[in-house]
Amino acid sequence: MSEFSLSLNDDQQQLKDWIHEFAVDVIRPAAHEWDEREEFPWPIVQEAAKIGLYGLDFIMNAMGDASGLTLPVAIEEIFWGDAGIGMAIMGSGLAAAGISGNGTPEQVIEWVPQCYGTPDDVKIGAFCVSEPDAGSDVSSLRTRAVYDEAKDEWVLNGTKAWITNGGIANVHVVVAAVDPELKGRGQASFVVPPGTKGLSQGQKYLKHGIKASHTAEVVLDDVRVPGRCLLGGKEKLDAKLARARERGKTGEAQPAMKTFEATRPAVGAQALGIARAAYEYALDYAKERKAFGKPIIMHQAIAFKLANMITRIDASRLLIWRAAWLARNGGFTNGEGSMSKYYASETAVRVTEEAIQILGGYGYTREYPVERWHRDAKIHTIFEGTSEIQQLVIARAISGMRVE
Ligand SMILES: Cc1cc2nc3c(=O)[nH]c(=O)nc-3n(C[C@H](O)[C@H](O)[C@H](O)COP(=O)(O)OP(=O)(O)OC[C@H]3O[C@@H](n4cnc5c(N)ncnc54)[C@H](O)[C@@H]3O)c2cc1C
Question: Which residue from 89, 181, 240, 306 lies 20 to 30 Å from 35 (Cα-Cα)?
């Protein structure tokens, strides 16, 4: 058990400074261009891989930290640089988390490195849960996984919607229904290895924000994967299904929910990075810009906005750090992971909107970055559990009741 502390240790401070430098020198200068191009920023991810910011070692180092703070600290700096590029750098982490959370040690060793490739041959991963008719309601997935015993293969059919890195990833982790009657308890996760026949990219979505992150449909048409691609293995799945059939439910979290629970403080940290970027920019601007003979920060209406922005930002960071620490040291008891993601996401939307207001007409134009930050912030109240779903998780945790 590690002590909870608000001071970063020397390694964490050095890491923070190092990522900040990369965000200032490489990510920020590229942000506008990739937002306009609306394409995956391969050259930037490759640069991140060359310095060791994108890759297996980085993730292992961050995940190995007992305090839990290394990952949110790193993510805040990356997203301070830019959220679209940030998602391109961090998106593979969801696939890696899906494998680590549900796979055997052998599966983790085999597949997680393939989500990242090497600095000379960068690869990406995708975690495919959502479907056109099942986003928040992950228990209603229609994608089916059927076991072909004669060949020891699983056959996957269905369509996944809004998948980060979908169709361009090396490794796709797919959550599918093995026994649809059991809803969430009848699902399992599968690795679809690179180059598997039948997996293709459907439409690429054009988005409101995080445009440098690739989001697309993934179509699974008789995709056959070997038995060893079932994460956790067949014996464990059979036992789980048998228990679920006997008792109606297993008490075990469904695979998709397990992954999302673990990654919530990290998603909160993404939103926090955007909010801090907008606040810092607006603060500097408010000290320079004059109206009615004085810097606009001398008008209480503007100064109070900034006071409110930094208060919410600091509160978000405290919630994120607490949740990240708890995730490694005893676990959540009151929906603390959801609290951190919910509060930081709503804060990012509000703070970036206030930043536009403080910059006035300039803030509304694409010459200044605050309108981009506002667009980028909004996704955080939607993906990896909407704000409403986070409140549902918190409400259930505090009441012990199945609030609907
Ligand atoms: C850019 C982007 C990237 C994404 N990346 C991925 C990815 O990599 N992998 C992946 O699997 N998915 C991904 N998603 C999908 C994302 O997780 C879903 O969009 C999200 O979970 C919401 O689902 P939905 O869009 O179906 O909305 P719905 O579930 O239809 O919700 C619509 C509205 O109803 C509300 N609502 C629904 N149920 C309830 C309830 N019980 N109580 C109160 N309110 C409710 C919601 O909060 C929301 O406001 C991504 C989405 C986007 C836009």
Answer: 306
**Taking CB atoms and a 6 Å cutoff, what residues make up the pocket around ligand 1?**
94, 127-130, 135-137, 162-164, 207, 210, 215, 379, 382-384, 386, 388-389, 392
The predicted model scores a pTM of 0.96
Are both 129 and 226 inside the same structural domain? yes
Q: Whose CA is nearest to atom 37 of ligand 1?
A: 136
Q: Which of 346, 354, 343 is nearest to 279 (CA)?
A: 354
Number of domains within the chain: 3
Residue nearest atom 48 in ligand 1 by C-alpha distance: 386
Q: Residue 260 above 80 pLDDT? A: no
Per-residue pLDDT tens digits for 111-156 = 999 999 999 999 999 999 999 999 999 999 999 999 999 999 999 9
Cα 382 to ligand 1 centre (Å) = 6
Determine whether 354 is an active site residue: no
d(CA 257, CA 263): 10
Specify the pLDDT at position 44. Answer: 98
Q: Which atom of ligand 1 is nearest to the CA of 164?
A: 8
What is 350-384 written as a DSSP string?
Answer: HHHHHHHHHHHHHHTSTTSTHHHHHHHHHGGGTSS
